[in-house]
Amino acid sequence: MLPGIGVFGTGSVAKVLVPFLREKGFSVEAIWGTTLQEAENTAKELKIPFFTNKIDDVLLKKNVNLVFIVCAPYLHAQISVKALGIGKHVVCDKPAGLCQAEALKMVRAAQYYPTLISIINHSLRFLPAFSHMRKCIQDGYLGNPDELTLMDVRVQMGSLLGDTYNWLCDDTMGGGTLTLVGSHVIDLVSFLTGQKVVKVHGVLRTFVEETAKVNGIRKITAPDFCTFQLQMDKGLLVTATLNNHLPGPCFNQEIYCCSKKGYLVVRGGDLYGKLHKISPKNSQEEECKRPHDREEVIYVDVEDLSCTSSVIPKPYIKGLCKMISALKEAFLPVKEQMDWVKEPVTAAATFEDGQRVQATMEALRKSSEDGCWTTVQLLTEPPDPNPALSAAVRRTAISLQ
Protein backbone atom coordinates (compact mmCIF):
# COMPACT_ATOMS: atom_id res chain seq x y z
CA MET A 1 0.00 0.00 0.00
CA LEU A 2 1.48 3.33 -1.06
CA PRO A 3 0.53 6.27 1.18
CA GLY A 4 -1.58 9.22 -0.03
CA ILE A 5 0.48 12.37 -0.64
CA GLY A 6 -0.06 15.94 0.55
CA VAL A 7 2.09 18.63 -1.12
CA PHE A 8 2.95 21.96 0.54
CA GLY A 9 4.00 24.50 -2.08
CA THR A 10 3.00 25.52 -5.59
CA GLY A 11 6.39 26.44 -7.08
CA SER A 12 8.61 24.79 -9.69
CA VAL A 13 9.61 21.89 -7.39
CA ALA A 14 5.94 20.94 -6.82
CA LYS A 15 5.28 21.00 -10.57
CA VAL A 16 8.14 18.54 -11.17
CA LEU A 17 7.40 16.46 -8.06
CA VAL A 18 3.71 15.64 -8.67
CA PRO A 19 4.18 13.96 -12.12
CA PHE A 20 7.07 11.87 -10.70
CA LEU A 21 4.93 10.76 -7.74
CA ARG A 22 2.10 9.70 -10.04
CA GLU A 23 4.54 7.90 -12.35
CA LYS A 24 5.72 5.80 -9.39
CA GLY A 25 2.15 4.93 -8.36
CA PHE A 26 1.56 7.41 -5.52
CA SER A 27 -1.80 9.17 -5.26
CA VAL A 28 -1.52 12.95 -4.75
CA GLU A 29 -4.53 13.82 -2.58
CA ALA A 30 -4.07 17.48 -1.59
CA ILE A 31 -2.03 20.62 -2.24
CA TRP A 32 -1.45 23.72 -0.12
CA GLY A 33 -0.60 27.20 -1.39
CA THR A 34 0.05 30.53 0.36
CA THR A 35 -3.14 31.92 -1.22
CA LEU A 36 -6.32 30.06 -2.16
CA GLN A 37 -6.07 31.33 -5.75
CA GLU A 38 -2.51 30.03 -6.08
CA ALA A 39 -3.50 26.64 -4.65
CA GLU A 40 -6.56 26.40 -6.93
CA ASN A 41 -4.59 27.26 -10.09
CA THR A 42 -1.88 24.68 -9.32
CA ALA A 43 -4.47 22.03 -8.35
CA LYS A 44 -6.22 22.52 -11.70
CA GLU A 45 -2.94 22.41 -13.62
CA LEU A 46 -1.76 19.24 -11.85
CA LYS A 47 -5.24 17.66 -11.52
CA ILE A 48 -5.17 17.41 -7.71
CA PRO A 49 -8.62 16.90 -6.13
CA PHE A 50 -8.20 19.03 -2.99
CA PHE A 51 -6.58 22.46 -2.52
CA THR A 52 -6.38 24.85 0.41
CA ASN A 53 -4.39 27.70 1.98
CA LYS A 54 -4.76 26.26 5.50
CA ILE A 55 -1.94 23.98 6.67
CA ASP A 56 -4.15 21.90 9.00
CA ASP A 57 -6.62 21.10 6.21
CA VAL A 58 -3.94 19.03 4.44
CA LEU A 59 -2.45 17.49 7.59
CA LEU A 60 -5.83 16.37 8.96
CA LYS A 61 -6.98 14.65 5.75
CA LYS A 62 -7.29 10.93 6.51
CA ASN A 63 -6.03 9.80 3.11
CA VAL A 64 -2.82 11.89 3.40
CA ASN A 65 -0.07 9.86 5.11
CA LEU A 66 3.11 11.35 3.58
CA VAL A 67 3.73 15.08 3.13
CA PHE A 68 6.22 16.78 0.83
CA ILE A 69 7.16 20.25 2.10
CA VAL A 70 8.43 22.28 -0.88
CA CYS A 71 7.25 25.76 0.14
CA ALA A 72 9.20 28.79 1.48
CA PRO A 73 11.80 27.82 4.14
CA TYR A 74 10.21 29.89 6.92
CA LEU A 75 7.41 27.26 7.07
CA HIS A 76 9.60 24.13 6.90
CA ALA A 77 10.06 23.63 10.65
CA GLN A 78 6.47 24.53 11.57
CA ILE A 79 4.88 22.10 9.09
CA SER A 80 7.43 19.30 9.73
CA VAL A 81 6.97 19.34 13.52
CA LYS A 82 3.17 19.54 13.23
CA ALA A 83 3.00 16.75 10.62
CA LEU A 84 5.15 14.36 12.70
CA GLY A 85 3.04 15.16 15.78
CA ILE A 86 -0.12 14.15 13.89
CA GLY A 87 1.56 10.94 12.70
CA LYS A 88 2.45 11.75 9.06
CA HIS A 89 5.67 10.83 7.26
CA VAL A 90 7.67 13.91 6.18
CA VAL A 91 9.94 14.73 3.24
CA CYS A 92 11.11 18.33 3.67
CA ASP A 93 12.91 20.38 1.04
CA LYS A 94 16.25 21.97 1.91
CA PRO A 95 17.08 23.93 4.06
CA ALA A 96 15.93 22.53 7.42
CA GLY A 97 14.23 25.75 8.56
CA LEU A 98 15.72 29.24 8.55
CA CYS A 99 18.22 28.73 11.36
CA GLN A 100 19.76 26.06 13.56
CA ALA A 101 17.17 26.60 16.32
CA GLU A 102 14.38 25.67 13.85
CA ALA A 103 16.39 22.68 12.60
CA LEU A 104 16.79 21.51 16.22
CA LYS A 105 12.98 21.54 16.66
CA MET A 106 12.72 19.30 13.59
CA VAL A 107 15.42 16.96 14.95
CA ARG A 108 13.64 16.68 18.32
CA ALA A 109 10.31 15.89 16.62
CA ALA A 110 11.96 13.21 14.44
CA GLN A 111 13.60 11.63 17.50
CA TYR A 112 10.28 11.65 19.35
CA TYR A 113 8.53 9.81 16.47
CA PRO A 114 11.19 7.35 15.23
CA THR A 115 8.62 5.11 13.49
CA LEU A 116 7.88 7.90 10.95
CA ILE A 117 9.96 8.78 7.88
CA SER A 118 11.63 12.18 8.30
CA ILE A 119 14.10 13.11 5.57
CA ILE A 120 15.51 16.24 3.91
CA ASN A 121 15.43 16.56 0.13
CA HIS A 122 19.18 16.57 -0.55
CA SER A 123 18.48 14.76 -3.80
CA LEU A 124 22.09 14.64 -5.10
CA ARG A 125 22.68 11.74 -2.67
CA PHE A 126 20.46 9.62 -4.95
CA LEU A 127 22.09 10.66 -8.23
CA PRO A 128 23.72 7.44 -9.57
CA ALA A 129 27.05 9.19 -10.30
CA PHE A 130 27.43 10.15 -6.62
CA SER A 131 26.26 6.72 -5.41
CA HIS A 132 29.04 5.20 -7.56
CA MET A 133 31.56 7.82 -6.40
CA ARG A 134 30.82 7.01 -2.76
CA LYS A 135 31.20 3.27 -3.41
CA CYS A 136 34.53 3.85 -5.20
CA ILE A 137 35.80 5.89 -2.22
CA GLN A 138 34.67 3.21 0.27
CA ASP A 139 36.16 0.41 -1.87
CA GLY A 140 39.57 2.09 -1.85
CA TYR A 141 39.81 3.35 -5.46
CA LEU A 142 41.70 6.38 -4.06
CA GLY A 143 43.36 4.43 -1.24
CA ASN A 144 42.34 4.68 2.42
CA PRO A 145 39.06 6.74 2.58
CA ASP A 146 40.42 8.58 5.66
CA GLU A 147 43.43 9.79 3.64
CA LEU A 148 41.56 11.85 1.02
CA THR A 149 43.33 15.18 0.59
CA LEU A 150 41.08 17.58 -1.36
CA MET A 151 37.59 18.02 -2.74
CA ASP A 152 37.12 20.80 -5.28
CA VAL A 153 33.56 21.81 -6.17
CA ARG A 154 32.56 24.24 -8.93
CA VAL A 155 28.94 25.07 -9.72
CA GLN A 156 28.11 27.65 -12.39
CA MET A 157 24.50 28.43 -13.20
CA GLY A 158 21.96 31.10 -14.12
CA SER A 159 20.07 33.36 -11.72
CA LEU A 160 17.96 31.81 -8.95
CA LEU A 161 15.56 34.79 -8.91
CA GLY A 162 12.06 34.88 -10.37
CA ASP A 163 10.01 37.64 -12.01
CA THR A 164 8.67 39.06 -8.73
CA TYR A 165 10.14 39.98 -5.35
CA ASN A 166 9.72 37.02 -2.97
CA TRP A 167 11.68 34.99 -0.40
CA LEU A 168 14.24 33.99 -3.06
CA CYS A 169 15.48 37.60 -3.07
CA ASP A 170 16.01 37.75 0.70
CA ASP A 171 19.00 36.20 2.45
CA THR A 172 17.26 36.04 5.86
CA MET A 173 14.26 34.21 4.35
CA GLY A 174 16.33 31.39 2.84
CA GLY A 175 17.20 32.84 -0.57
CA GLY A 176 20.63 32.88 -2.21
CA THR A 177 23.16 30.48 -3.63
CA LEU A 178 24.61 29.36 -0.27
CA THR A 179 21.24 28.11 1.00
CA LEU A 180 19.81 26.78 -2.26
CA VAL A 181 22.97 25.28 -3.83
CA GLY A 182 25.62 25.37 -1.10
CA SER A 183 23.46 23.30 1.27
CA HIS A 184 23.51 20.45 -1.29
CA VAL A 185 27.31 20.73 -1.61
CA ILE A 186 27.90 20.73 2.17
CA ASP A 187 25.63 17.70 2.64
CA LEU A 188 27.12 15.86 -0.34
CA VAL A 189 30.70 16.22 0.93
CA SER A 190 29.80 14.55 4.26
CA PHE A 191 27.75 11.87 2.47
CA LEU A 192 30.58 10.96 0.06
CA THR A 193 33.44 10.97 2.57
CA GLY A 194 31.77 10.18 5.90
CA GLN A 195 33.62 13.16 7.42
CA LYS A 196 32.16 16.07 9.39
CA VAL A 197 32.87 19.79 8.98
CA VAL A 198 34.97 21.26 11.81
CA LYS A 199 35.96 24.78 10.63
CA VAL A 200 34.92 26.99 7.74
CA HIS A 201 35.98 30.07 5.84
CA GLY A 202 33.64 31.77 3.39
CA VAL A 203 33.01 34.82 1.23
CA LEU A 204 29.40 35.64 0.30
CA ARG A 205 28.55 38.45 -2.12
CA THR A 206 25.39 39.94 -3.64
CA PHE A 207 26.55 41.52 -6.90
CA VAL A 208 23.09 41.87 -8.50
CA GLU A 209 20.90 44.00 -6.19
CA GLU A 210 18.30 44.82 -8.86
CA THR A 211 16.97 43.18 -12.01
CA ALA A 212 14.70 44.45 -14.77
CA LYS A 213 11.71 42.97 -12.93
CA VAL A 214 12.84 43.28 -9.29
CA ASN A 215 13.72 46.90 -8.57
CA GLY A 216 12.51 50.05 -6.83
CA ILE A 217 12.58 50.40 -3.05
CA ARG A 218 13.33 46.73 -2.42
CA LYS A 219 16.89 45.51 -2.85
CA ILE A 220 17.98 41.91 -3.43
CA THR A 221 20.03 40.72 -0.43
CA ALA A 222 20.36 37.02 -1.36
CA PRO A 223 23.99 36.21 -2.32
CA ASP A 224 24.53 35.30 -5.99
CA PHE A 225 28.16 34.27 -5.48
CA CYS A 226 29.93 32.39 -2.74
CA THR A 227 33.23 30.66 -2.27
CA PHE A 228 34.14 28.68 0.82
CA GLN A 229 36.60 26.27 2.35
CA LEU A 230 35.62 23.48 4.75
CA GLN A 231 38.11 21.76 7.06
CA MET A 232 36.87 18.22 7.75
CA ASP A 233 37.52 16.21 10.92
CA LYS A 234 39.96 13.74 9.30
CA GLY A 235 42.09 16.29 7.47
CA LEU A 236 40.22 16.60 4.16
CA LEU A 237 40.05 20.14 2.76
CA VAL A 238 37.03 21.14 0.66
CA THR A 239 36.97 24.18 -1.64
CA ALA A 240 33.77 25.28 -3.36
CA THR A 241 32.85 28.10 -5.75
CA LEU A 242 29.18 28.73 -6.52
CA ASN A 243 28.34 31.27 -9.19
CA ASN A 244 24.88 32.47 -10.36
CA HIS A 245 26.08 34.82 -13.10
CA LEU A 246 25.68 32.70 -16.23
CA PRO A 247 23.00 33.85 -18.70
CA GLY A 248 19.89 31.72 -19.14
CA PRO A 249 18.93 28.42 -17.47
CA CYS A 250 22.34 26.74 -17.79
CA PHE A 251 23.98 24.53 -15.16
CA ASN A 252 27.57 23.27 -14.97
CA GLN A 253 28.70 21.19 -11.99
CA GLU A 254 32.09 19.59 -11.48
CA ILE A 255 33.13 17.83 -8.27
CA TYR A 256 36.67 16.48 -7.87
CA CYS A 257 37.72 14.16 -5.04
CA CYS A 258 41.50 13.78 -4.80
CA SER A 259 44.03 11.69 -2.91
CA LYS A 260 47.73 10.95 -3.34
CA LYS A 261 46.75 8.01 -5.60
CA GLY A 262 44.63 9.97 -8.10
CA TYR A 263 41.17 11.51 -8.40
CA LEU A 264 37.49 10.88 -9.08
CA VAL A 265 35.36 13.52 -10.79
CA VAL A 266 31.62 13.89 -11.43
CA ARG A 267 30.78 16.14 -14.38
CA GLY A 268 27.05 16.68 -14.72
CA GLY A 269 25.76 13.13 -14.20
CA ASP A 270 28.86 11.16 -15.31
CA LEU A 271 31.69 9.76 -13.17
CA TYR A 272 35.33 9.52 -14.27
CA GLY A 273 38.51 8.53 -12.47
CA LYS A 274 42.25 8.66 -13.01
CA LEU A 275 45.11 7.19 -10.99
CA HIS A 276 48.68 8.47 -10.96
CA LYS A 277 51.26 6.23 -12.61
CA ILE A 278 52.62 3.61 -10.25
CA SER A 279 56.17 2.37 -10.40
CA PRO A 280 56.20 -1.03 -12.22
CA LYS A 281 58.43 -2.44 -9.48
CA ASN A 282 55.71 -1.89 -6.87
CA SER A 283 52.65 -3.05 -8.74
CA GLN A 284 52.99 -4.42 -12.26
CA GLU A 285 49.51 -5.97 -12.22
CA GLU A 286 47.75 -2.76 -11.23
CA GLU A 287 49.74 -0.87 -13.87
CA CYS A 288 48.37 -3.20 -16.54
CA LYS A 289 44.79 -3.07 -15.30
CA ARG A 290 44.14 0.68 -15.35
CA PRO A 291 44.58 3.19 -18.22
CA HIS A 292 46.82 5.84 -16.64
CA ASP A 293 47.27 8.01 -19.71
CA ARG A 294 43.58 9.00 -19.83
CA GLU A 295 40.54 9.23 -17.58
CA GLU A 296 38.69 6.01 -16.88
CA VAL A 297 34.93 6.14 -17.51
CA ILE A 298 33.30 4.63 -14.42
CA TYR A 299 29.64 5.61 -14.92
CA VAL A 300 27.81 7.38 -17.76
CA ASP A 301 24.28 8.62 -17.23
CA VAL A 302 22.17 7.70 -20.27
CA GLU A 303 18.73 7.61 -18.64
CA ASP A 304 16.21 10.17 -19.95
CA LEU A 305 13.84 12.07 -17.69
CA SER A 306 10.08 11.88 -18.15
CA CYS A 307 9.68 15.37 -16.62
CA THR A 308 12.04 18.32 -17.05
CA SER A 309 12.15 21.90 -15.78
CA SER A 310 13.69 25.09 -17.12
CA VAL A 311 14.23 26.28 -13.53
CA ILE A 312 15.56 23.22 -11.66
CA PRO A 313 18.88 21.75 -12.89
CA LYS A 314 18.76 18.23 -14.34
CA PRO A 315 20.95 16.53 -11.65
CA TYR A 316 18.58 17.72 -8.90
CA ILE A 317 15.51 16.51 -10.83
CA LYS A 318 17.09 13.12 -11.52
CA GLY A 319 18.10 12.75 -7.87
CA LEU A 320 14.54 13.65 -6.80
CA CYS A 321 13.13 10.99 -9.14
CA LYS A 322 15.51 8.36 -7.69
CA MET A 323 14.54 9.39 -4.15
CA ILE A 324 10.83 8.92 -4.95
CA SER A 325 11.67 5.45 -6.34
CA ALA A 326 13.45 4.66 -3.04
CA LEU A 327 10.39 5.84 -1.08
CA LYS A 328 8.19 3.56 -3.19
CA GLU A 329 10.47 0.62 -2.36
CA ALA A 330 10.25 1.56 1.33
CA PHE A 331 6.43 1.42 1.35
CA LEU A 332 5.67 -1.27 -1.25
CA PRO A 333 6.58 -4.46 0.69
CA VAL A 334 4.16 -3.68 3.58
CA LYS A 335 0.38 -4.03 3.71
CA GLU A 336 -0.49 -1.10 6.00
CA GLN A 337 -0.28 2.45 4.63
CA MET A 338 1.77 3.77 7.57
CA ASP A 339 4.27 0.86 7.67
CA TRP A 340 7.59 1.01 5.81
CA VAL A 341 10.99 -0.65 5.59
CA LYS A 342 14.11 1.40 6.26
CA GLU A 343 16.70 -0.07 3.90
CA PRO A 344 15.73 1.71 0.60
CA VAL A 345 15.94 5.18 2.20
CA THR A 346 19.09 4.73 4.32
CA ALA A 347 21.00 6.96 1.86
CA ALA A 348 18.60 9.89 2.47
CA ALA A 349 19.59 12.94 4.53
CA THR A 350 18.03 12.89 8.01
CA PHE A 351 16.90 15.93 10.00
CA GLU A 352 20.18 15.59 11.98
CA ASP A 353 22.08 15.96 8.68
CA GLY A 354 19.91 19.01 7.95
CA GLN A 355 20.87 20.60 11.27
CA ARG A 356 24.56 19.97 10.63
CA VAL A 357 24.26 21.67 7.22
CA GLN A 358 22.43 24.58 8.86
CA ALA A 359 25.20 24.91 11.49
CA THR A 360 27.82 24.95 8.72
CA MET A 361 25.93 27.67 6.79
CA GLU A 362 25.60 29.79 9.95
CA ALA A 363 29.37 29.49 10.51
CA LEU A 364 30.00 30.47 6.85
CA ARG A 365 27.83 33.61 7.17
CA LYS A 366 29.71 34.57 10.35
CA SER A 367 33.04 33.89 8.63
CA SER A 368 32.05 36.10 5.71
CA GLU A 369 31.20 38.95 8.10
CA ASP A 370 34.34 38.55 10.27
CA GLY A 371 36.76 37.60 7.48
CA CYS A 372 38.29 34.71 9.44
CA TRP A 373 38.04 30.94 9.97
CA THR A 374 35.03 30.00 12.13
CA THR A 375 34.36 26.81 14.13
CA VAL A 376 31.09 24.99 13.41
CA GLN A 377 29.00 24.79 16.58
CA LEU A 378 26.09 22.37 16.77
CA LEU A 379 23.18 23.41 19.01
CA THR A 380 22.07 20.81 21.55
CA GLU A 381 19.62 23.02 23.46
CA PRO A 382 17.19 25.66 22.10
CA PRO A 383 18.65 29.17 22.46
CA ASP A 384 17.27 31.33 25.28
CA PRO A 385 14.76 33.79 23.72
CA ASN A 386 15.50 36.43 26.38
CA PRO A 387 18.92 35.93 27.98
CA ALA A 388 18.83 39.27 29.88
CA LEU A 389 15.53 38.37 31.58
CA SER A 390 16.75 34.86 32.39
CA ALA A 391 19.92 36.27 33.98
CA ALA A 392 17.82 38.67 36.10
CA VAL A 393 15.56 35.81 37.25
CA ARG A 394 18.62 33.73 38.19
CA ARG A 395 20.11 36.64 40.18
CA THR A 396 16.78 37.12 42.02
CA ALA A 397 16.62 33.42 42.85
CA ILE A 398 20.17 33.48 44.22
CA SER A 399 19.51 36.58 46.37
CA LEU A 400 16.32 34.98 47.80
CA GLN A 401 18.31 31.95 48.87
Automatic annotation (TrEMBL):
<dbReference type="GO" id="GO:0016491">
    <property type="term" value="F:oxidoreductase activity"/>
</dbReference>
<comment type="similarity">
    <text>Belongs to the Gfo/Idh/MocA family.</text>
</comment>
<dbReference type="InterPro" id="IPR055170">
    <property type="entry name" value="GFO_IDH_MocA-like_dom"/>
</dbReference>
<keyword id="KW-0560">Oxidoreductase</keyword>
<dbReference type="Pfam" id="PF01408">
    <property type="entry name" value="GFO_IDH_MocA"/>
</dbReference>
<dbReference type="Pfam" id="PF22725">
    <property type="entry name" value="GFO_IDH_MocA_C3"/>
</dbReference>
<dbReference type="GO" id="GO:0000166">
    <property type="term" value="F:nucleotide binding"/>
</dbReference>
<protein>
    <recommendedName>
        <fullName>Glucose-fructose oxidoreductase domain-containing protein 1</fullName>
    </recommendedName>
</protein>
<dbReference type="InterPro" id="IPR036291">
    <property type="entry name" value="NAD(P)-bd_dom_sf"/>
</dbReference>
<dbReference type="InterPro" id="IPR000683">
    <property type="entry name" value="Gfo/Idh/MocA-like_OxRdtase_N"/>
</dbReference>
<feature type="domain" description="GFO/IDH/MocA-like oxidoreductase">
    <location>
        <begin position="131"/>
        <end position="254"/>
    </location>
</feature>
<dbReference type="InterPro" id="IPR050463">
    <property type="entry name" value="Gfo/Idh/MocA_oxidrdct_glycsds"/>
</dbReference>
<feature type="domain" description="Gfo/Idh/MocA-like oxidoreductase N-terminal">
    <location>
        <begin position="5"/>
        <end position="111"/>
    </location>
</feature>
